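Bench log. Compound arrived from synthesis this morning; before running ITC I wanted a structural hypothesis for how histidyl-adenosine monophosphate sits in the protein. Inputs:
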Amino acid sequence: MYQAPCGTIDILPEEQAYWRYIEQKAAEISQRYGYRRIDTPVFEDTGLFIRGVGEATDIVQKEMYTFEDRGGNKLTLRPEGTAPACRAYLEHGMQNLLQPVKMFYITSLYRYERPQAGRYREFRQFGCEAIGEIDPSLDAEVIDMAWQFFLLLGMSQLLLKINSIGCKNCRPEYTGLIKQYYTQCEPRLCPDCRSRLAKNPLRLLDCKNTSCQQIASSAPKSYEHLCPECATHFEQLQKYVRLLDLPFQVDPCLVRGLDYYTRTVFEIQPEAEGSQSTVGAGGRYDDLIEELGGKPTPGIGFAIGIERIIFNLKKQNTPIPPLPDPAVYIASLGEASREAAVKLSGDLRRRGISLVQAHGNKSLKAQLRQANTLGVRWTVVIGDEEIKTCTVQLRDMTTSRQQTIRMDKLAEILK
Ligand code: HAM
């Protein structure tokens, strides 16, 4: 027997109400903040992610699903949505539109990670990108949008952490300080951190290992080593976020796993669980468009993991509006009445009524039992007598009361 590939899930019919609910709320909040939907291909040129996400990141080093197609093109299933959105921005000349260009996506992503609770190899995100504006009031707006999205979904007890990791002018000096500090602590570092020290020193700060976290707590803080422009940007951002009444913490250990970030970074986590279960994250990427071949153009965005939202909604017992089920069941007895049922069902559906038609040779009792299980409000019964008189029996499943209705009046009555 085949099984779904490791790290993937089937989203079964009974789960779909969550997905529909989240997608509707994502579209609603996007409209409220002026974002329009974009859909990009599921695979892209591998180079886009190597350049965009960064050669030294875990994603590029060990998580990409990369393959060569029959034409010899090197392609990668998208591991994230920001680089594709920036590629589309450049490819479609969006620099000529009113800036910032604001786009959102609801899409599946692929990362060859070690599967565990809340971590999949195929997962879905709701993401937003605002490209073409440097003003920190946009950063505050983007963070506000992510936060309000969770409130709109009915999620609570969340933590909002923000930090500034500087720009290409001030970061090298800070990275040097981190390297220096961690080199002194090297014997106490976990094996992963020892290799990070050479490859990606900033990632040392967000190691989940307890003893590495202790070391990180005394490490130099990026916000104390920002250039004047980045320092002002970060101060203004905090002022705007306060004006929006968002309960944030500045977390000096917050760095992100993708290389394109500059200045503002932020994460939203459930209060109880910590960073392993981050539900949403984002930040600025002011050099990314240039890195991909465009003119220097700033950008900021975030992405929220939909599977993780569903996990939290279930955990908090948040009520989700159910998807509408058919309200009508059509029962029939014998071939002649089956023919009438086929015709009647087609007719009612063409008039917009959703219904379940009985198939197979079940007794009336079994058909009524099925109607009950489906939870329909009405059952229409057609037998020989009804065919002769062009009528049906309409049974109210809540009271079990039955009345004779003319077949040509049925649609109107059901509507
Ligand atoms: P990210 O932090 O890699 O950022 O992912 C964002 C969110 O996607 C995470 O907080 C988490 O909820 C979810 N997520 C990530 N990996 C997995 C996984 N393996 N299984 C389940 N959920 C996962 C980005 O992807 C950036 N592109 C966000 C961004 C947009 N930054 C600026 N614009």
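What the model suggests: The radius of gyration is 28 Å. The domain at 13-170+226-315 is CATH 3.30.930.10 (BirA Bifunctional Protein; domain 2).
ITC booked for Thursday regardless.
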